[in-house]
Amino acid sequence: THTHASMLFFTQSGRVFQLRVHEIPERERQAKGVSVNNLIDIGPNERITAVFIKPETETEARYMLMVTKNGYIKKTALAEYGNVRRNGLIAINLQEGDELDWVAPTTGLDEILITTALGKAIRFSETEVRAMGRDTQGVIGMRLGKGDFVVGMATAVSGGELLVITERGYGKRTPLSEYPMHHRAGQGVFTLKITDRVGKLVAMRVVSDPEEEILVISASGMVLRTQVGAISQIGRQTQGVIVMRIPSEDQVVA
Description:
The protein is mainly β and about 250 residues long. It contains no helices and 18 strands. The protein has strands spanning about 5-10, 15-20, 50-55, 65-70, 70-75, 90, 100-105, 110-115, 120-125, 140, 150-155, 160-165, 170-175, 190, 200-205, 215, 225, 240. The strands form five sheets. A four-stranded antiparallel β-sheet has the order 3-1-2-6, with no helix packed on it. A four-stranded antiparallel β-sheet has the order 7-4-5-10, with no helix packed on it. The chain is globular, with a radius of gyration of 18 Å. The two termini are about 25 Å apart. The mean pLDDT is about 95.
């Protein structure tokens, strides 16, 4: 990025904050940094769930697309984020018990992928989500089964693969071509076979370059760095392979 760019910070409670990059203190690579609570007026019980550089032109992105833990989806024109105050703005209205966990800039014509903890995935066109103002709830993006919840959202890329990781350290890559286009508000298809051995799904990414690298991080702070190409490419209805060996008392979180 550059010093005059703006960053948008979205919180789990559905608010959005903005900072200029030059307002963030510059530190050495090994330094701890400063608490973001000292930079924006985030509440004591709020946590940041999405951060990215604000697109500067509509050729980069026209909308902000949001997905909640309970499967709601909403998109709002980028122009509505032109003047975000220091104390934040409402980005989405949430039902009780729901939270905003995923936000992505989109063109209005992208394909959206949503995955859940119990191994389901849905792919549909962004055109099925009409644009709404900031102070609205959105619509159902994916219908969830009992005990299920969303664990990831991403936009599709040509020739891409869906990379998924479970809480017990299993993972795999599956070509996006194996995920049929459905309509919004469907239940999706299986992307991974959930068992006690592999655990629930915890993270997903759309990848396209086998030399890309990912970090797998556990609750205890263990970190594994590996190339995408080192993770097996296999079909949707499989358990995956071991990507990171996890002690019984630990689990993958990101």
